[in-house]
Inverse folding.
């Protein structure tokens, strides 16, 4: 059993459909968190009620309520995650995990993940791998790699998280990718453990939208992240095997090039863009690198 202490932070907005699974999966862990802050971002459904129900039985669960800021936006998740961290930053802990409200995990997930941190002092960001239901079978998402940890299950060494300054809110999402890149740029290792599966109960990026709109948004995300054009093109070609297949890749690439007509610049620091693009070219050349 590991000895490092950890806390969890879960941003949640109208998650009554899935959050019970997440509440059950954490409370059944063999190694429990010292604190788990669930940040309800203006939820108008039964999310708060379900969290309160579990908090009465598990004293480490805390509900933080934010005022309703309107529709679901990807930057809102970064703001909610930051609010959750601020709520517990005075506590003593070694690791901070961010967990989406539509994820379920094996009971030994955090015990094994934290053991990985303890075995490698240079490990700054780690997690398992996201699996999603495809035709009745749980499979890894297309394009995920061993040096990319999804924001839905990211865990940070506290020193690493505070060194990079936490998450940068981005309108089209990608704060998790930026965090991975900033950690790598600062000399920390980033690793996804392939034997630790995290079940994602809602297809990635489809909350409140259609699949084609989601692909267009993902292209916008890649532009404002500063993705290299060649990397984006290759990525879209490879994603043809992912539903909705050719049309999805076309919508994604259109989303990537659309902001260029308005001369919109990436929304992350220039040094991070340079680092990310260098890693992407290395990856295209088969020499590794980040997602």
């Amino acid at each position: 059993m590991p000895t490092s202490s950890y806390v969890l932070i879960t941003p949640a907005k109208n998650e009554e459909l899935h959050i019970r699974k997440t509440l059950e999966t954490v409370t059944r862990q063999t190694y429990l968190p010292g604190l788990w802050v669930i940040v309800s971002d203006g939820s108008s459904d039964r999310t708060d009620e379900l969290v309160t129900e579990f908090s009465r039985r598990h004293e480490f669960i805390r509900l933080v309520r934010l005022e309703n800021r309107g529709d679901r936006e990807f930057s809102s998740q970064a703001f909610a995650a930051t609010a959750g961290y601020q709520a517990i930053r005075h506590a003593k802990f070694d690791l901070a995990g961010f967990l989406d409200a539509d994820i379920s995990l094996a009971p030994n997930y955090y015990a094994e993940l934290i053991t990985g941190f303890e075995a490698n002092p240079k490990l700054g960001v780690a997690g398992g791998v996201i699996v999603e239901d495809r035709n009745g079978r749980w499979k890894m998402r297309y394009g995920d790699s061993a040096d990319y940890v999804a924001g839905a299950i990211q865990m940070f060494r506290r020193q690493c998280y505070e060194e990079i300054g936490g998450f940068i809110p981005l309108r089209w999402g990608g704060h998790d990718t930026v965090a991975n890149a900033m950690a790598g740029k600062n000399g920390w290792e980033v690793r996804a453990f392939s034997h630790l599966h995290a079940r994602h109960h809602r297809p990635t990026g489809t909350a409140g939208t259609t699949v084609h709109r989601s692909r267009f948004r993902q292209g916008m995300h890649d532009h404002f992240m500063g993705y290299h054009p060649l990397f984006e093109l290759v990525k879209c070609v490879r994603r043809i095997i992912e539903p909705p297949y050719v049309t999805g890749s076309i919508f994604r690439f259109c989303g990537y090039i659309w902001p260029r007509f308005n001369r919109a610049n990436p929304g992350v620091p220039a040094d991070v863009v340079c680092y990310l693009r260098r890693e992407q070219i290395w990856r295209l050349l088969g020499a590794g690198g980040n997602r």
User: Anything to note?
Assistant: The chain has a mean pLDDT of 92. The longest helix spans residues 246-261. The chain is about 40% helix and 20% strand. The radius of gyration is 18 Å.
